[in-house]
Amino acid sequence: MDEMVTYENWDDERVAALLGNNHDFLDVLKWAYMEYKEAIVYSCSFGAEGIVLIDLIYKVNKNAKIIFLDTGLHFPETYELIDKVKKRYPTLQITLIKPKVSLEEQTTRFGEELWSHNSNLCCHLRKVVPLKEALQDVTAWISGLRREQSPTRSKTEYINKDEKFHKIKICPLIHWSWEDIMTYIHLNNLPYNPLHDKGYPSIGCFPCTKPVTEDEDTRSGRWAGQSKTECGLHEK
């Protein structure tokens, strides 16, 4: 039996040959859950990609573990959507992960609205650190990254060596377009965040998320006006 693919034993040639030439998003998910069993978790933002992945994951593993990084700064619509998803997929193990540093403690230590004057530190405290802790006991995690989302994501593969958290990162939707995502949602009558219909293709924390125009990429509304394009979860 082949040894499980881990960060420590990563081999480019072996990984490239794992799924063969004829594979798609569902093949990737099936392989991931067969390979890692209980040692894999889906870190979901509950954006449109997240809703699609939850539905696909449910077809493969109805008891899958899903975590949401609850920064305490999400839109009300996001929390309402999570409640709807929990009711639709009652067997999924959905857990909200909160930072150890409360918003009040953060204000005391770093000043009012840290996100407005040091968004990198805010993301680090409220997203990166909690995810690192949540991934301690797993070998792999699933992400909804798509290549068309931004230049920084354009070379994402199905199976990735995650240098940030020293895990294996599985990205089944890399070839999906925004139109593919929304078409799947509507065809399957899935619940989704109503902010997507108001110009928000990518939804994060409310202080750092703005609507975008049709000629902008789907991530341009995140940290608008800053050079920042990622929260730190998908950077080395």
Structure description:
It is a single chain. The protein has helices at 12-17, 25-36, 48-60, 76-88, 103-110, 114-117, 119-134, 178-187, and strands at 40-43, 65-69, 93-97, 140-142, 159-162, 167-170. By secondary structure, it is of the alpha/beta class. Helix 3 crosses helix 8 (178-187). It has a single domain (12-208), classed as Rossmann fold, CATH 3.40.50. The two termini are 32 Å apart. The radius of gyration is 17 Å and the shape is globular.
Task: From the structure above, extract its key features.
236 residues, alpha/beta, Rossmann fold, 8 helices
Q: What's the number of helices? A: 8
Q: Report the sheet with the most strands, covering strand number, pairing sense and barrel closure.
A: 6 strands, mixed
The Cα radius of gyration reads 17 Å
Low-confidence stretches: none
Mean pLDDT: 90
Structure class: alpha/beta
- The CATH topology annotation reads as Rossmann fold
Largest beta sheet: strand ordering: 3-2-1-4-6-5
The helical percent reads 25-40%
Order of helices and strands: HHEHEHEHHHEEEH
The number of E-state strands comes to 6
The gross shape turns out to be: globular
Distance between the termini: 32 Å
Strand coverage percent: 5-15%
